[in-house]
Design a protein that fits this description.
This protein is an alpha/beta fold. 30% of the residues lie in helices and 27% in strands. It has a single domain, classed as Vaccinia Virus protein VP39 (Rossmann fold), CATH 3.40.50.150. It starts with a helix and ends in a 7-residue tail after the last strand.
Length: 252
């Protein structure tokens, strides 16, 4: 891992991840389509997507681009620490004729310079489970609570167990499960020129939470339970999606 990663924080390893994949010729690390779990919660609760939306840990922007192209929400703002991934997201937005200036480099743990009560809906689609230090997780959740308006909602999709099982970049989970230890190197498979090709990548920090444990973390910060969907997707494998609500009047 590069020196600056250790200086800034372990989760900056994802900048190295994106940069290395692009250096090998891949157009993207993630799939191009929005997360299936996002589509499901949108179908169940479209009313919570009507206001100002922030996508926390947007990566290459798959969910933000879906919301923008579908004209969902009053506005969509997208934060990530990886400038390489954000450049990719901006390029995709321009290619689709969508605004690219909403993709902003920002540490989602601290959300510096983001005013209180700025958003009606916050998405964290697979970013919280990249944080494995209790203080980082608690600070992130508390800041999300701050930047949401009263009555706003927070959607969190988080690995529940068996990190790596079902991931589209892992061919044989059972063969490498014992190697899924942060700091070790495993072979991942990424689409390059229409073929899935191997790239050796470092295992980065991750965390797993049962649905009950994740909900407990969220309600400890003041959120109220709203909805839950248990999912099994190519992006996050065996995961739980929790939707919680900030108490107060209905979001505008």
């Amino acid at each position: 891992m590069r020196k600056y990663v250790a200086e800034k924080g372990y989760y900056f390893g994802y900048e190295d991840r994106y940069a290395k994949v692009y250096e090998h010729g891949a157009e993207s690390w993630e799939g191009a389509s929005e997360n299936a779990s996002l589509r499901e919660i949108l179908a169940r609760h479209p009313e919570i997507f009507e206001g100002d939306i922030v996508d926390l840990g947007t990566g290459e922007g798959r969910d933000s681009l879906f919301l923008l192209s579908s004209r969902i929400g009053r506005s969509v703002t997208s934060f990530d620490v990886s400038h390489s991934a954000l450049e990719n997201a901006r390029r995709r937005a321009r290619e689709k004729g969508l605004p690219a200036d909403g993709f902003v480099e920002k540490d989602i743990i601290f959300l510096r310079d983001v005013a209180a009560e700025s958003f009606d809906l916050a998405l964290n689609m697979g970013a919280l489970h990249m944080l494995d230090r209790a203080e980082d997780r608690a600070r992130h959740i508390a800041r999300v609570f701050d930047v949401l308006r009263p009555g706003g909602h927070f959607i969190v999709d988080h690995c529940a167990s068996e990190w790596g099982r079902g991931f589209h970049t892992i061919k044989d989970y059972d063969a490498i499960a014992a190697e899924l230890v942060p700091g070790r190197t495993i072979t991942r498979y990424v689409e390059i020129d229409g073929e899935r090709k191997p790239i050796d990548l470092e295992v980065l920090h991750y965390s797993e939470r049962s649905p009950e444990s994740l909900l407990s973390e969220l309600t400890a910060a003041g959120f109220e339970e709203f909805a839950r969907v248990d999912t099994d997707t190519e992006a996050f494998g065996n995961s739980t999606l929790q939707v919680v609500r900030k108490p107060g009047k209905d979001a505008k």
